[in-house]
User: Fold this.
Amino acid sequence: MKEWWIQVGLLGIPLLAVYLHIPPPQLSSELHSWKTSGRFFSYKGLSIFYKDSWGAVGSSEIVVLLHGFPTSSHDWYKIWEGLTQRFHRVIALDFLGFGFSDKPRPHHYSIFEQASIVEGLLRHLGLQNQRVNLLSHDYGDTVAQELLYRYKHNRTGRVLISSLCLSNGGIFPETHHPTLLQKLLKDGGPMSPILTRLMNFFFFARGLAVVFGPYTRPSEAEMWDMWTGIRTNDGNLVIDSLLQYINQRKKHRDRWVGALTAMAVPLHFIYGPSDPVNPHPEFMNLYRKMLPQSTVSILDDHISHYPQLEDPMGFLNAYLNFINSF
Assistant:
């Protein structure tokens, strides 16, 4: 008689094969509505999802929203309507490798490429000569820093920036504390392809919940929407490649922090102080020291890494107060 563990192993092989080929979840009605209200444009043969809403009559101002890791443009849905009441156009995209956009593999994902995609989107929309306000979060903060660097150095095709508002991004590598899973995946070690293939909703939800405040964690339905965005186009298989942005932040710190310190347009930061990734007061002390010209909005003590989802009204009011101040 064969050893029991051999029998278990033989049984586990087909079960593992089935597990690895589980299709992504179907879109919820909320995600389906988000997708159908958006469009796609082509960037170097890659399909990029974006949403472009025309809003306030009489306003000529444009705001471009840059989302964080590992989610998508849907992160802005709770404040979308409020923004359309203030701005002429509200524009957001899913970065390459995120949400409904293409997720090529193998591919060298970089902050530089994501910034070029933002420039490409604005050219596609005929807005390359229009000034825009940038509102960013997390990963999007770093993309905004690169766009700011190009604007400052008058690079061809640059985005013309009227203002920049950052939120809960690791703009200083020395005060950024990645989650355990991010640390395991960001260096592309031998465990990376195994972990990305074995990742499921349970582990994702547990891992993401820790960066939300104790009273502001997403509902199960909201978590499923986030997970569905990742699983679309097998996005879980490129997570380790996307996480190279952490190493890029360290390598290009002087370029990207320097872009902020030399900034000549209005700058603001909206901060959820319960954030374990960019902890208080360590992060904010350094921010105020490095960027004394910036204004800051610190939300309630229990608001954490996703302030636009955890406290949408507080976030929206803080942003509009900033926009209306100049």
User: Anything to note?
Assistant: The two ends are 80 Å apart (CA to CA). The chain has 15 helices and eight strands. Residues 175 and 282 are 7 Å apart (CA to CA).
